[in-house]
Amino acid sequence: MKVAIKDNICTKDMPTTCSSEMLRDFTSPFDATVVSLLHQAGAHIVGKTNCDEFGMGSLNTHSIHGPVINPWKSLSSDITPRSAGGSSGGSAAAVAAGLCDVALGTDTGGSVRLPASYCGVVGLKPSYGLLSRWGVVSYSDSLDCVGILTRNTKDIADVFPVLNDYDAKDPTSIPLPVRAKASKLLSVHTFSRWNRDASYLSGLRIGIPQEYFPAEIQSSVVSPIRALFTELRGLGATLVPVSLPSTSYALSAYYVIASAEASSNLARFTGIEYGTHVGPPPEADLTKASRVYAHSRSNGFGREVQKRILLGTYALSADAFDNYFLQAQRVRKLVKRDFDHVFAVPNVLSSSPSEASSQSKVDVIMHPSAIRTAPPIDSGSESLDTYVQDTLTVPASLAGLPALSVPAGTADDGWPVGVSVVGQWGCDELVLRVGEIVQAVTAGRDSQSSSSD
Amino acid sequence: MRGGWQLRRVLPRTRLFSTIGEGGTDRRWPGWEVVVGLEVHAQIKSRSKLFSDSLTSDPSESHNTCVSPYDAAFPGTLPKLNSKCVDLTLRTAIALNSQIQRRSAFDRKHYFYADIPAGYQITQHYAPVAMGGHLDLETGRLVRIKQIQIEQDTGKSTFDARRRVSMIDLNRAGTGLMEIVSEPDMRSPEEAGVYLRTLQSILRSVGSSDGNMEQGSLRCDVNVSVNRPGEPSGTRCEVKNLNSVKFMQVAIACEVFRQIELLEKGEAVQQETRGFDEAGARTFSLRSKEDAPDYRYMPDPNLPLLLLDQSYVDRIRSTMPELPGETRARLLKQGLTVRDVDVLTSVDAGREVGFDGQLGEGAVVYFDAVAIGRNPKIVVNWITQDLLGQLAARNLTFKENPISTQQLGDLVDIVQNGSITGTSAKTLLRHMLDQRSAALPSELAREMSLFALPADGDSGSSELEQWCRDAMAAVPAETAAAKKGHSGVINRLVGRVMKMSRGRANALKAKEVLQSMLRGPD
């Protein structure tokens, strides 16, 4: 099996640049745990993939290696190149273009799911804490997850168990007994009602969150998803409208938390122990270490990274800490609580699982993965719109939930649309199984429509 | 220069130990009260670092040899808490009567400096592992403990002025530290010195730190303020990085004089952080309160909450080594004299603190092992009078003592049950020290034919009689005199017998045999 690895995951026999000038010539002295596990399982690692610098971006345009062009349509003069999405754009594009069977990405706020959606491939962000982060260059430790991209959901289901193991080197890795307990809860609460081996969905309750169809969403993105919902109902699924009221605050909270952690995690890049060093000019102020580092850091970090470091540094400053960082943590709790309220499977990580009647509860929720299809590469990369791209993916990141983006057809512009399947923490198996059925449904539909091509 | 002037003015005064004068204030600064609090950083004596598997090291290690990718803050590395560091900090907390928090957490303290490669230090800012507590000083003062927190040590940077480069050694980076913060409960430089020494001996006795100030494994910052009696505490200044008890006391005294001088001139003391110039015996400003850096404390997103359940804490409590005061009391209760206890504990004061809470094989532990089932007073005499003396004569430290507790115990036993005489036992002890023999004294005594002849019973009596006959034959003149009733002469004959038997004979028995022989066959 040919596997590509996102360039912010450490490999000892290939450079790990994080698409940053800062690490242009950096090779890690060790392999990430996920890389070692792939080697052990006999995978052939074909190369590293482009990404947004340190995983910060939604379009894969912030990279010393240049932007990733979406391979969905072959380049020609009459087609404006479109973004592959970010930050794992290289991984999604490599899978979509058939350069590899599987690619590893990382997903902090949607960085696997968004490019998967734009490139028409499948992308899983597993439950936080299942896949080891040892060797993954930290952007935001409390949100970063290693993700898997493939063309078929079935292939993810094959690779996922290889990587899904406790790792003593990662202090956030969830111990085996907790994983086992989550599996048990899933069996008791969902698989007792729905036969996962069947190709029909009778017994499965799918929640449709109203907050995930915001005004900014392209209507042509919604149509294939509505069609999918109808087809799933036809297979016996019960569709339940649900509400996740804290969703509108999630994006702001995400950017505060992710930037705060980024400002901390990226403090280590000084060009002293490793990485690109830019010496201070002869007349420079050398009175403080920070003044000396400033030359390497100003040169080594791109605009987007610098922007987030500044934002995060402010959010952690004594005057802003309460109103920004702590407030964001409160919102994060509310977002988690929203999800716990709607899922039939209790959250094994919550200290007080809500015991409300499971009558109105759902097994998974489904929503569009993105508010639009892949945007053209040269437009809007500096506007606020790029941040709005993350609106639909960020809540599952804040709550640490498994989320899978599966191709759900194409929009009017002929570019792919993804649908996200989100489950309770530890319900990755459920999410993957539902994803397989979704993909079978949409693939069947595509083959009918494309037979006319 | 002002500093030089202060040196002459201060040093003679700080030598005065007498502190409290008339009206409850110190004779050095009449009419003023001094308030001192200490922040002590003690390196945790763990085998490996706080968050990585690399070994801890002392300053003699060649630089940058105990460094893992995590210690050098390589991208992709993550911390992994060393539970040994937690255990040792809990021992410290228990020894200081501090309340162990069932729930504590790690935070990042951010600042850019060459010796902290991650750009932040992991510490416990918001929720320390232990709160409260107290340390009783022999002066009668009770110093309250504010809190104890676990944190990472930094690397070391050295500036090479000639080449104008800074050199970074990361061997120390990431070593576990305990920060022990006292309340401002001390009232003189000397009291702060007593506090520091007492704390040092407690850390050593529980094995949590070797508390070595020369090596830098114990460092302290002091907070000093002065006020008029009856008035609230004055504005405090912090003097950082004091590396010996002596310099700490001098620094406090210098700072007291500086603050008093300002106040007496009608100026205010500014709250600030100061350094101490050892050579100039003066403190100097490092930064004012306004310049205090914003460390942007953030809960560490990698390290989970440190949750300690009661059974865990109970386990640490039940395996706590004895504290110095408890040891003294117990030994005195066993009937040891104050002098014996002083000797044993002073031997232990210099012992090495083992890694991960392994206590060094000190003299008290040695005594305890030998004293099991034996008379403690006899055992302690063998240790303090014979063993320690023989070790000293050979320039050996107690750590180098080759005599096992089984060997010494056996030696005491065979003396006590009369198998060998005290004289033979001393010979045997010297022999074991010189030959480094691992054999038990009872075996050695057999090999060397040192067994005493029994004081009663028949076995050996023929041998004794033979020696007596030989002794009388060797000195016919004395024997004749003795036969005539010169009782003094018989002791010389006994002496000969003892010599011939190499100390094995029982002198009283020999005298009896000689007397009966001298009386002659009836």
TrEMBL record, chain A:
InterPro entries: Amidase, Amidase_CS, Amidase_dom, AS_sf, GatA. Keywords: ATP-binding, Ligase, Mitochondrion, Nucleotide-binding, Protein biosynthesis. Transmembrane segments: none annotated. PROSITE patterns: AMIDASES. The lineage of its organism: Eukaryota, Fungi, Dikarya, Basidiomycota, Agaricomycotina. The active site is at 6 (charge relay system), 87 (charge relay system), 111 (acyl-ester intermediate). Subunit of the heterotrimeric GatCAB amidotransferase (AdT) complex, composed of A, B and C subunits. It is found in: Mitochondrion. Belongs to the amidase family. GatA subfamily. GO terms for cellular component: glutamyl-tRNA(Gln) amidotransferase complex; mitochondrion. One of its GO terms (biological process) is mitochondrial translation. It comes from Heliocybe sulcata. Allows the formation of correctly charged Gln-tRNA(Gln) through the transamidation of misacylated Glu-tRNA(Gln) in the mitochondria. The reaction takes place in the presence of glutamine and ATP through an activated gamma-phospho-Glu-tRNA(Gln). It catalyses: L-glutamyl-tRNA(Gln) + L-glutamine + ATP + H2O = L-glutaminyl-tRNA(Gln) + L-glutamate + ADP + phosphate + H(+). Its EC number is 6.3.5.7. One of its GO terms (molecular function) is glutaminyl-tRNA synthase (glutamine-hydrolyzing) activity. Residues 3-432 form the Amidase domain. This is Glutamyl-tRNA(Gln) amidotransferase subunit A, mitochondrial. It holds the Pfam family Amidase.
UniProtKB/TrEMBL annotation, chain B:
This is Glutamyl-tRNA(Gln) amidotransferase subunit B, mitochondrial. PROSITE patterns: GATB. Coiled coil: none annotated. GO terms for molecular function: ATP binding; glutaminyl-tRNA synthase (glutamine-hydrolyzing) activity; transferase activity. Its EC number is 6.3.5.-. It catalyses: L-glutamyl-tRNA(Gln) + L-glutamine + ATP + H2O = L-glutaminyl-tRNA(Gln) + L-glutamate + ADP + phosphate + H(+). It is found in: Mitochondrion. HAMAP family: GatB. It holds the Pfam family GatB_N. NCBIfam families: gatB, PRK05477.1-2, PRK05477.1-4. PANTHER family: GLUTAMYL-TRNA GLN AMIDOTRANSFERASE SUBUNIT B MITOCHONDRIAL AND PROKARYOTIC PET112-RELATED (PTHR11659), GLUTAMYL-TRNA(GLN) AMIDOTRANSFERASE SUBUNIT B, MITOCHONDRIAL (PTHR11659:SF0). GO terms for cellular component: glutamyl-tRNA(Gln) amidotransferase complex; mitochondrion. Subunit of the heterotrimeric GatCAB amidotransferase (AdT) complex, composed of A, B and C subunits. Allows the formation of correctly charged Gln-tRNA(Gln) through the transamidation of misacylated Glu-tRNA(Gln) in the mitochondria. The reaction takes place in the presence of glutamine and ATP through an activated gamma-phospho-Glu-tRNA(Gln). GO terms for biological process: glutaminyl-tRNAGln biosynthesis via transamidation; mitochondrial translation. It comes from Heliocybe sulcata. Belongs to the GatB/GatE family. GatB subfamily. InterPro entries: Asn/Gln-tRNA_amidoTrfase_suB/E, Asn/Gln-tRNA_Trfase_suB/E_cat, Asn/Gln_amidotransferase, Asn/Gln_tRNA_amidoTrase-B-like, GatB, GatB_Yqey_C_2, Gln-tRNA_amidoTrfase_suB_CS, Gln_synth/guanido_kin_cat_dom. Residues 365-518 form the Asn/Gln amidotransferase domain. The keyword Nucleotide-binding applies. Keywords: ATP-binding, Ligase, Mitochondrion, Nucleotide-binding, Protein biosynthesis, Transferase.
